[in-house]
Design goal:
Elements (H helix, E strand, L loop, with lengths): L1 E9 L10 E5 L2 H9 L4 H8 L3 E10 H11 L23 H13 L12 H14 L2 E4 L6 E4 L11 E2 L20 E5 L5 E5 L1 H7 L4 H5 L6 E4 L1
Antiparallel strand pairs: 1-2, 1-3, 4-5, 4-6, 7-8, 7-9
């Protein structure tokens, strides 16, 4: 079967040995379309630059194409290629030591990947239930205001600690915790009587008067805010 060695590059690139991306495929145009949505360096470059060119360098057999790819990309991280050429995909470019360390880290963080491709629905359901139970929760000390995350499946917060990240402020109640219109007023009624009033609105209510009449100085009323 015919195989193609292709080069994805910018117009200003002149050296396929060090610049752009070298790849092989039996269907290069389809492969180029796949690169467009790739999250690798080559995909990012295609989306970023407007002068991208797609060039066929060689038309040959699969075996020779792999050999040519190896010559263009003898090691990892050349141009936009992440791994060296010459190997049949898929190939993990990470060393065994690095893969083991990543696996250990995932296990330590309790972040092993569960997927419907590798696990049954029952196993995934059990995993989700375990994650829900093990999810840490916030508790705070009402005395000091200190807050902390506790994995309640493994540890219990102190007895007097309360769920939540911090104490919620108690809403103030109008008429109990504070008063509106609480300025001092000097009032003169239509008969000439004078009053020293604190909280004009409340005073009007207690005396059966309309606040709008007194405050608006209607019908002979006079008001002066102190």
């Amino acid at each position: 079967m015919t195989c193609y060695v292709y080069w994805i590059k910018r117009k200003s690139f002149t050296n396929p040995n060090t610049q752009g991306y070298i790849g092989i495929s039996n269907n290069p145009q389809n492969r180029f379309n796949q690169h467009k949505s790739s999250k690798q360096k080559v995909g990012n470059a295609i989306r970023k630059y407007r002068d991208i060119e797609f060039i066929i360098l060689h038309e040959t057999t699969r075996k020779e194409a792999l050999e040519l790819e190896k010559k263009y990309r003898p090691s990892d991280y050349i141009g936009w290629n992440v791994i060296s050429g010459g190997s049949e995909p898929p190939r993990n470019h990470l060393s065994e030591d690095v893969r083991n360390r990543i696996s250990d880290t995932l296990k330590t963080k309790n972040a092993n990947p569960y997927s419907e491709k590798t696990h049954s629905p029952e196993t995934i359901a059990k995993r989700e239930e375990a994650k829900r139970k093990n999810k840490p929760k916030w508790f705070y000390n009402p005395g000091t205001g200190e807050s902390k995350l506790f994995k309640t499946a493994f540890e219990s917060p102190p007895e007097f600690w309360i769920p939540g990240k911090k104490a919620k402020k108690k809403p103030k109640i109008r008429g109990v915790d504070y008063e509106c219109h609480t300025s001092n007023w000097h009032i003169i009624d239509p008969q000439g009587n004078e009053f020293e009033v604190f909280n004009l609105k409340k005073w009007c209510k207690e005396n059966g008067l309309k606040y709008q009449t007194v405050y608006g100085s209607a019908k002979g009323w006079k008001t002066e805010q102190r």
